[in-house]
Amino acid sequence: MAPANVRLNPVGLLVAAVIAICIFFYMFGVPGFPGNDRISMRELLSVSVDLAERGGKRVTEIAQAQLLEAKEKGKTKEGAKEMLTQGDLESHRAIVNGFLKTYPGITLISEEHENKPVDFNQIPDPNKQLEEVLRAVSSDQQIPLSNIAVWVDPLDATQEYTEGLYKFVTTMVCVVVNGEPTIGVIHKPFEKETVWAWVDKGHSPNLKKSSDVKPNENKRKIIVSRSHAGPVEAVAKKSFGPDTEVVPAGGAGYKTLEVIKGNVEAYVHVTLIKKWDICAGHAILKAVEGKMTTLEGNYITYYPKDNPKVDAGLLATIYNHYDYLKKLAPEMDTLKGKHKR
Questions:
Q1: Cα–Cα distance between 338 and 78 in angstroms, integer?
Q2: Parallel, antiparallel, or unpaired for β 245-249 and 266-269?
Q3: Closest Cα to residue 154, out of 48, 307, 23?
Q4: Residue 110 phi/psi, 5° resolution?
Q5: Which residues contact 313 (CB under 8 A, 6 or more apart)?
Q6: Phi, psi angle pair for 30, to nearest 5°
Q7: Of the four listed, 175, 217, 275, 297, which is most buried by Cβ atoms within 10 Å?
Q8: pLDDT tens digits for 258-281?
Q9: b (16+ CB within 10 A) / e for 234-251
Q10: What percentage of the chain carries pLDDT values higher than 70?
């Protein structure tokens, strides 16, 4: 039998070539274009840890000098005060300006905003080679700057900060790649503790793996916002049993860390929350095979142009995530009704 003649369609070849080129540029950036310089993710991790701790230092210094100058910047949907202090602003300046000096053109989303001119000569260079990071992370990855965004919460739990409840206070940095939380840093400035992780690459020595955090099958322990503890406690006991313990606490960063450390089984939040409050914890949870979704089970993304508000509640767990969602589902209307204004 004579061999068959195979004729290649030139139009099809052209389309395939264009698709291949688009995929290449999407993954690796366009050389020579602003914002597409490739940067070291391991260095970015070191900078993120260093700047979170630098912001935390300003938070503690302001508190020790009693220079909080607390004022109300607005109210939540539920009517609770949203506070602003010099600690928030000084931490914001330390973290954001440190990033801008190191990575000009990087996309930054911070809870606080300021338009004052900055003398970058007065800002110390962040450390790109932290020894703790180099020991824990053996490999590196080069990512185009245009694919990266950094979400910053310069002071989480401001209300508790003004009340002197310092254990709840954190400073947080989250590095996002193409909308996915990839590097998370949560620093507790008053306890001088920093937990960080780079998904699939490494984590701080004080972070346990999910296999080391065993759930308590006999008694559920859930952490919730101090201002919403009552209604959530009633729903939790109805959903998981009368022995369920509900722990009220301040700060999304603190509460997520309690889940990550295995001190509680779940973090339940029933009202609107901002993405800078949860991004860093989300990344660290991913690194230890935990999960964070809305209470409706929807995944949360962190594209810079996304709405920064998550208004469908929040659930963070290490184990049994979908079991929690399933058991909470019948009470969702109750939870929403309790907080509708």
A1: 10
A2: unpaired
A3: 48
A4: -120, 155
A5: 268, 269, 270, 271, 294, 295, 296, 335
A6: -105, 110
A7: 175
A8: 999 999 999 999 889 999 999 999
A9: ebbbebbeeebbbbebbb
A10: 80
Query: Measured between alpha carbons, how far is 51 from 36 in angstroms, rounded to an integer?
Result: 23
Closest CA to 250 of 316, 317, 166: 166
Q: What whole-number distance in Å separates Cα of residue 186 and Cα of residue 281?
A: 7
Of 212, 317, 202, the closest CA to residue 265 belongs to 317
Amino acid in position 19? I
Q: Do β-strands 148-156 and 142-144 pair in parallel, antiparallel, or remain unpaired?
A: unpaired
- Predicted model pTM: 0.85
> Stretch 125-141: mean pLDDT, rounded?
97
Return the residue matching tokens 């009470």. 331
* Pairing of β 107-110 and β 148-156: parallel
Cα–Cα distance, 255 to 27 (Å, whole number): 35
Residue type, 245: E
